[in-house]
Every structure is written in structure tokens, then in C-alpha cells.
Write a structure and sequence with these properties.
The protein has a domain of 283 residues: Alkaline Phosphatase, subunit A (3-Layer(aba) Sandwich), CATH 3.40.720. Helix content is 34%, strand content 16%. Helix 6 packs parallel to helix 10. The protein contains 13 helices and 17 strands. Strand 13 and strand 14 form a beta hairpin. By secondary structure, it is α/β, with parallel strands linked by helices. The strands form 6 sheets. Strands 5-10-3-15-16-4-17 form a 7-stranded mixed β-sheet, sandwiched between helices. A two-stranded antiparallel ribbon has the order 1-2. A two-stranded antiparallel sheet has the order 6-7.
Length: 449
């Protein structure tokens, strides 16, 4: 059987195809060239944005180095502490007013990945900067089906003003392809699944809701469509690869079933705004996990190497009744030191970290050549605001998870000099990717990690 594996020599770009499916494969041993060694896998970059900041005293460790004590908000990450850094005192100076007055939430989102000050306007003359994810995508995107994926749990208005004279474009997007061109995020899990597995096209508009609806009525999975191709390939694989393929296809089927269940609960092809706030809001948890699992599948299949994910739009007013928090998130972030509000903010912040921990754990379990996806990745989790009550942009919460193929040593809490630019972190990430730019936004040099 070992000889069969060597002779097969699959391409990394092999797809299982059917009448309505194009399913990219995960890394298999059969993709190693005959008598060769597994090539070093590519580095993936993921950027997660949490709205309304954090309860910083429960976020920031008191001690530094590798012996730091886990804080209340970071406790869900305890088992993963060797795989991430807590980076304190990083600043996004561009988020400050600079004479523009209110609008901190719009600036928090628009500067999170650009580190550039947005033009205060509610018209078409929006302008901020190119975001770090799009700088990366411009260099590595040609190697994958999708140069980048932009995802989020909330849509928001496409036009008009959303925050104190700032265009809604600033509040609703963290990814910017050009200073005046945000990259719209996808908020429908079914559309993301359709792009990844239901079409062979890399065109974001190629998702066909009518075709998906036909499959749903016929109770047909994308795997049913590609089953004959999968069966043929499976017969050519060795035992280890067969097990990997079976596990992978099972995970696709499970995610597809959850996607359909979530969709059917809406009784509509399109999820209405704030639908997941109805009742106790618990379906939002299912939807959030589904997005993280779709990101994992996209990375596992090397469909993209760059992902942005907004847990909520800037200034999100989502309520979390299932956590015992009926008030809106944004309202609570203006806590004024009220102990009851602070306790509820802590619940929301911790819930988000719990879901992030689940995501990292999943990546750590996914094989990628001779390593795993967490080892192959750089994952930023944070916000463009520190304390939501003070609208503080000069000490923002930041985690950096993953090892970038061994180029980043994790497991530390690092406290930098006051007002160290967040852009320095992004410059360090570019360095790990061998992308030479010399400077990014207001960077002063690659961050020492």
C-alpha cells in the first residue's frame, strides 16, 4: 500500500467534483512527492475583531514573561497558553479624534487593521488606508482560490452615517483593499459554505442561492454530488490518508447540516437583521461557532490564507440574554464604573474568549503536513478600543496566537513601552511572511516578540 501512495502523488490543488460541488482536499500524505519530504506548509493569517473593547483589568496580566498568571477573561485559554502571546500597551493613535470629535467606535473598526485615521464624512468620499490583511492578500492571494475571506456576524446599513458623522462603512468593515474601498464582509454562513464547497469558481458572487435551495429541498448534500469522485480517490489512498479523508468529509457534512439547520430556523432565505437577538439569543452562539468552523475548513483546504472576522460591528448593541445579559453590549460598555454593568461586560468578553479558545483548539487538532494549523498560523484577536467607557485607543487588548511555522515564539505576556504602535505588530507579521515593505502605517519598526 505504501507503494500506491508514492505513485499516486496528488496535487495540493486536487478537488472532488460533482454536478454542484467542488471540494478542495486537506493535506494528505499522498501529496508528498515520491521519495521526497513534505514541504513546509504556508503561513495563514487570521484577524478577529471584538467590538466595544474589553474589561481591561480582567484582561491584562499583572506579571510579564512566561510565568504570568492567567486572568479572569483569559482563563478559557489556559490549556493553550503555550500557543499565544498577550501583547499589552499597544496603541492605535489613528483611533483618537485628532480634531474630529466623537466617533470612537467607527474609528475603532476602521483603524484596527489599517492604523490610519479615517476621514470624517458621511458621504462617498470615505478614506482611511489599506488594511494589513489586504497587504498580505496582495502577496499570497495568488496561491489560493480566494485571495482573502471577510466574514462577520452582523451586517449593518450599507449607506448613511452610523457614528457621530462617520460613514457606516467605517463601522461595518475592518478590511480595506484601497483607502476608499472597504471589502464587504459575508454574514451568511450558508453563503460561505457555498463558496467553499458548492462551486468551482473563486468569484464571491458565484454562490447560487437557488441551487442551494434545490439541494435543501432534495435533502442533497454537496458530498452526495461529489461522492463518486470521493469513492474513486479513497480507493487509491493508503490507510492513513483514507482516515484523514473520512474525518474531513465527516466534518464537512456536520458543518453543512448545522448551516442548514440554522438557515431553516429563520424560515427565510435571508437572515433578518438581529434575528439572532430574538428569544434568548442562544442561536447566536451556534452561528458564531459555525463561522469559526468554516474559517478552519477554509484554512485546512488552503482555499485562502487570509481571513478577517468581525464578532460584531463597531458599537454593536447585540444583547446576550442566554448569558443573563439582556442589555445591549454598547450600552453596557459605557459602564461609568457601575459594578452591575461591569459584571455583565465581563460575561460578554469571556464568552467571546471561550469561543476563540474553541477555535484555536480545533486548529491545533487539524494536521497540516508534519505539523498542525495552529503551528502554521498567525491569529490576532483584539479590538480597536481598550476600555469602552473611556474610548481608549492607546492601550488596546491584543492576543497573537500561533507560531508562524516556528518564526514566532509564544507563551508570553509582553508589556511594551507606552504608545508603541499597533502597526509594529503588523510589520512583524509581514516579516514572518517574508513580505518586505519597510513600513506599515505609523510603524516605527517590527515588534519584538
Amino acid at each position: 500500500m505504501a507503494n500506491v501512495i508514492k505513485k499516486l502523488s496528488l496535487s495540493r490543488r486536487t478537488f472532488l467534483r460533482g454536478s454542484s460541488a467542488a471540494i478542495a482536499l486537506p493535506w494528505l500524505d499522498a501529496m508528498v512527492p515520491a521519495l521526497g519530504r513534505a514541504p513546509k506548509g504556508p503561513i495563514r493569517s487570521v484577524f478577529v475583531f471584538a467590538p466595544n473593547g474589553q474589561k481591561m483589568d480582567d484582561w491584562t496580566p499583572k506579571d510579564e514573561g512566561r510565568t504570568w498568571s492567567m486572568t479572569a477573561l483569559l482563563k478559557p485559554l489556559e490549556s493553550l497558553r503555550a500557543h499565544f502571546d498577550v501583547l499589552s500597551s499597544l496603541a492605535i493613535d489613528a483611533g483618537r479624534p485628532h480634531g474630529d470629535g466623537p466617533g470612537d467606535h467607527a474609528r475603532a473598526a476602521s483603524t484596527y487593521l489599517t492604523c490610519m485615521h479615517p476621514r470624517k464624512t458621511g458621504g462617498a468620499d470615505i478614506h482611511v488606508g489599506v488594511s494589513i490583511d489586504q497587504v498580505i492578500a496582495a502577496h499570497v492571494g495568488k496561491h489560493t482560490r480566494f485571495p482573502s475571506l471577510e466574514l462577520g456576524t452582523e451586517g449593518g446599513r450599507k449607506g448613511g452615517v452610523c457614528d457621530s458623522g462617520y460613514s457606516c462603512a467605517y463601522s461595518n468593515n475592518i478590511s480595506w483593499r484601497a483607502p476608499s474601498a472597504p471589502v464587504a464582509k459575508e454574514t451568511r454562513p450558508r453563503a460561505v459554505f457555498g463558496r467553499l464547497f458548492g462551486t468551482s469558481s473563486s468569484d464571491p458572487s458565484s454562490f447560487d442561492p437557488k441551487a442551494e435551495e434545490r439541494r435543501r429541498r432534495q435533502a442533497q448534500s454537496v458530498l452526495d454530488s461529489a461522492w463518486a469522485d470521493a469513492k474513486r480517490l479513497r480507493g487509491k489512498l493508503g490507510g492513513s490518508d483514507r482516515a484523514k479523508l473520512d474525518d474531513y468529509l465527516a466534518s464537512i457534512r456536520e458543518v453543512e447540516q448545522r448551516t442548514r439547520k440554522l438557515r431553516e430556523e429563520t424560515h427565510s432565505a435571508d437572515i433578518p437583521r438581529d434575528f439572532f437577538d430574538h428569544g434568548d439569543g442562544s442561536r447566536f452562539k451556534d452561528r458564531l461557532r459555525l463561522f469559526y468552523d468554516l474559517i478552519a475548513l477554509a484554512l485546512q483546504t488552503d482555499s485562502t490564507r487570509t481571513v478577517t472576522f468581525m464578532l460584531g460591528r463597531a458599537g454593536s448593541s447585540r444583547s446576550y440574554r442566554f448569558l443573563g445579559v439582556p442589555e445591549g453590549h454598547h450600552y453596557l460598555s459605557h459602564h461609568g464604573g457601575n459594578p452591575a454593568k461591569l459584571a455583565k461586560i465581563k460575561k460578554i468578553n469571556r464568552f467571546h474568549v471561550e469561543q476563540f479558545a474553541r477555535f484555536l483548539t480545533r486548529l491545533a487538532k487539524i494536521e497540516d503536513g508534519d505539523s498542525n494549523l495552529l503551528h502554521r498560523s498567525m491569529i490576532v484577536y483584539g479590538s480597536g478600543i481598550g476600555d469602552g467607557n473611556r474610548h481608549d485607543h492607546m492601550d488596546v487588548p491584543v492576543l497573537l496566537a500561533g507560531h508562524a511555522n516556528g518564526r514566532i515564539a509564544t507563551g508570553k505576556h509582553v508589556r511594551y513601552a507606552r504608545h508603541t504602535p499597533m502597526a509594529n505588530l503588523y510589520l512583524r507579521m509581514l516579516e514572518a511572511l517574508d513580505i518586505e515593505t519597510g513600513k506599515f502605517a505609523d510603524s516605527t519598526g517590527p515588534l519584538a516578540i
